Amino acid sequence: MKVKNKTLLLLASMVWMIAGINIARIGFLSYQGYISIINIILSLIIFIVFWSMIFQKLVQKHTIRIKQYTTEKQYFWNFFDIKSFCIMAFMMTFGILIRNFHLMPQLFIAVFYTGLGLALVFAGASFGHKYLNFQR
User: Fold this and answer.
1) Which tens digit of pLDDT belongs to each residue from 48-59?
2) Which contacts (CB < 8 Å, 24+ apart) does range 78-86 have?
3) What pLDDT band is residue 81 in, cutting at 50, 70 and 90?
4) Which of 44, 61, 118, 119 could in theory staple to 50 by disulfide, Cβ–Cβ 3.0 to 4.6 A?
């Protein structure tokens, strides 16, 4: 149940990569019939906003927290704190509700999910980079 502190960064990387790939996949599949320069630009803007305002800071915050653990091993779920798990659960629930109850048009799903998914993938890659360069 316990893993080395460095491994927590790898776990965070895997969780965010899996989530990001799944969300981006939904966005890409929804793009059929909506591919245009403006929509691609909107997805890019969503990516930049989510990466720079949320996920980049999240990666830094959790990397610092993990590096500050004083014991060599932690429970594997400690790659995030309670607040981050709650945010993730809210985002997943909200996303599932949007799609299952058709609360937003396909165009929104295509543009928003693509940008958000790619930002999540980038966060996962950043955690992976932190894992590879981990030093106490």
Assistant:
1) 999 999 999 999
2) 78/8, 79/8, 79/9, 79/11, 79/12, 79/15, 80/12, 84/58
3) confident
4) 119
pTM of the model: 0.91
Distance from the first to the final alpha carbon of the chain: 22
Domain residue ranges in the chain: 2-132
Contact 119, 23 (CB under 8 A): no
CA dihedral of 98, 104, 105, 110, whole degrees rounded to 10: -60
Per-residue confidence (pLDDT) for residue 70, from 0 to 100: 85
- Phi and psi, residue 35, nearest 5°: -70, 120
Instruction: Report whether 134 contacts 9 (CB < 8 A).
Output: yes
